[in-house]
Q: What sequence folds into this?
């Protein structure tokens, strides 16, 4: 029993190292795949399958999918296909164990892999170390299975499954319940599947009992997504609900027709291997479980999407609704969500400034919008604090995001100054000019091409207003010097003028950094005219 428990622990450690290493190696590739190959339900399903096989973790695929749904890069409808594909892909672990785990000496293979993997992690350059982690993960995974095998050789003495007759409805429910509990405790369906396969190979359980355990494990694997979705975005909740409903409905249908399915599994196994290998048969059953579910759900994806959207409606238009903490482990997805959040914050501030200029005072609606952006800044800072970008491109994008956040924070401070009403009243011509520019921008937020055009227009506007500030400021002081204007009036006009200048500058620079994020190129702060940030 000690060997079995230790084997499960080492297997879980190996799976964790393997998944983390593969995610680090293929993270950016996965992001591009997900963005490119999710145009329809079938392509989404294939993408989810291959992504999960590649990283050996349906959870990683699910989290990345949630990130893209939250960022608006794919629809919730497209995400359903990815989740179904991820369920099929997660069965690959069972095939690895059944085809390799019981056919060769795992200890003889695993120890050299662990040794070489650890050696690479300690002595190799930083960009090669992640490959050592993958190798170590594979070695630990196989060593865990080897220990499990040894533990299961005496399993008949401490696992009493003889009384659980699969002809009894209560016994079937109990077996399914045990499968659910196994997955919840181990927090990994692959570990539960490895334990079941090893118990079957050792003779501790029979083939039908193992099949019902697998049914339960497929339900239990949804627990992680459900827990992770608590307090998360609506996108995360819908994804978790998709995972749960898919597996529960499939489990119910498979249980009803399990006798026929097991006969079909036996027929296919004999056809391919020449004899009935129970461990291969169980891996096949696990795959067919998800394939049957896909056959049932895929034709009704649109209806399923509408049902879940109705069950879990979108929240009010909260700026931070997409900031899901589950995304921080995937920097590319987290930064994309941050970009979309900042874009919405800029639109919010654009509406607020238009209201201020039209009403010529700070209305309740204006104050509410500014306050909502202030609250969003706090939450976005907390979200970004946990994001770590490793590649050069991601670091550049990360820096661009932080610049946007900084300029928006400064813009808020400008909008909170007392000179805002004076600026609107004293410099009507400039404000009308700015009002017209903001109206054009407000119609451009839904198009990346238009945003690029508006950034150039904003730069011209910022430079023109900077020039107006230089000229008018000198004129006000010259008039004061010859006593044509009272000093108090001149100072009031200058302060209002400086307020407009800073307002336009920080808005433009925030906008420019958003464009920089999309282009993926690094920009320098403008130094063509004096630094408004010091004002």
A:
């Amino acid at each position: 029993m000690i060997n079995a428990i230790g084997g499960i622990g080492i297997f879980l450690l190996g799976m964790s190292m393997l998944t983390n290493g593969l995610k680090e190696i293929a993270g950016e590739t996965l992001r591009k795949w997900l963005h490119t190959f999710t145009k329809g339900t079938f392509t989404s399903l294939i993408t989810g399958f291959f992504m999960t096989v590649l990283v050996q973790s349906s959870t990683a695929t699910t989290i990345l999918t949630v990130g893209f749904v939250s960022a608006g890069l794919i629809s919730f409808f497209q995400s359903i296909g990815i989740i179904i594909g991820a369920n099929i892909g997660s069965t690959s672990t069972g095939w690895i164990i059944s085809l390799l785990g019981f056919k060769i000496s795992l200890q003889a293979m695993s120890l050299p892999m662990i040794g070489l993997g650890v050696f690479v992690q300690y002595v190799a350059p930083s960009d090669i170390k992640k490959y050592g982690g993958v190798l170590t993960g594979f070695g630990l995974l196989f060593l865990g299975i080897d220990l499990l095998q040894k533990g299961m050789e005496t399993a008949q003495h401490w696992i009493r499954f003889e009384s659980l007759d699969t002809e009894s409805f209560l016994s079937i429910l109990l077996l399914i319940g045990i499968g659910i509990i196994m997955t919840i405790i181990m927090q990994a369906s692959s570990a539960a599947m490895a334990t079941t396969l090893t118990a079957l190979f050792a003779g501790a359980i029979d083939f039908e009992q193992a099949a019902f355990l697998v049914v339960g494990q497929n339900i239990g694997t949804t627990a992680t997504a459900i827990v992770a979705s608590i307090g998360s975005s609506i996108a995360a909740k819908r994804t978790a609900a998709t995972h749960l409903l898919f597996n529960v409905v499939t489990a119910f249908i498979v249980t009803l027709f399990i006798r026929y399915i097991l006969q079909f599994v036996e027929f296919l196994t004999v056809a391919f291997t020449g004899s009935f290998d129970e461990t291969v048969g169980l891996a096949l059953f696990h795959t067919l479980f998800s394939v049957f579910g896909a056959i049932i759900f895929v034709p009704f994806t649109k209806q399923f999407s509408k049902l879940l959207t109705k069950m879990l409606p979108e929240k009010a238009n909260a700026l931070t609704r997409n900031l899901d903490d589950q995304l921080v482990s995937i920097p590319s997805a987290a930064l994309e969500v941050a970009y979309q959040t900042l874009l919405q914050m800029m639109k919010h501030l654009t509406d607020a400034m238009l209201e201020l200029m039209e009403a010529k005072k700070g209305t309740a609606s204006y104050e509410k919008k500014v306050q909502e952006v202030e609250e969003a800044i706090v939450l976005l800072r907390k979200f970004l604090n946990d994001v770590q970008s490793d590649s050069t491109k991601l670091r550049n994008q990360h820096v661009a995001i932080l610049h946007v956040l900084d300029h928006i924070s400064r813009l808020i401070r400008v909008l909170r100054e007392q000179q805002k009403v004076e600026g609107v009243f004293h410099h009507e011509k400039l404000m009308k000019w700015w009002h017209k520019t903001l109206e054009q921008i407000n119609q451009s937020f839904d198009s990346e091409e238009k945003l690029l055009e508006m950034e150039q227009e904003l730069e011209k506007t910022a430079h023109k207003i900077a020039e107006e500030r230089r000229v008018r400021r000198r004129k006000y002081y010259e008039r004061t010097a010859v006593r044509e204007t009272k000093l108090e009036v001149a100072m009031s006009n200058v302060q209002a003028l400086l307020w407009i200048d800073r307002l336009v500058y920080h808005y433009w620079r925030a906008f420019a950094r958003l464009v920089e994020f999309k282009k993926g190129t690094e920009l320098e702060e403008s130094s063509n005219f004096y630094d408004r940030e010091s004002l």
Confidence is low (pLDDT under 50) at residues 526-535. Residues 2-36 form the longest helix (35 residues). The radius of gyration is 30 Å.
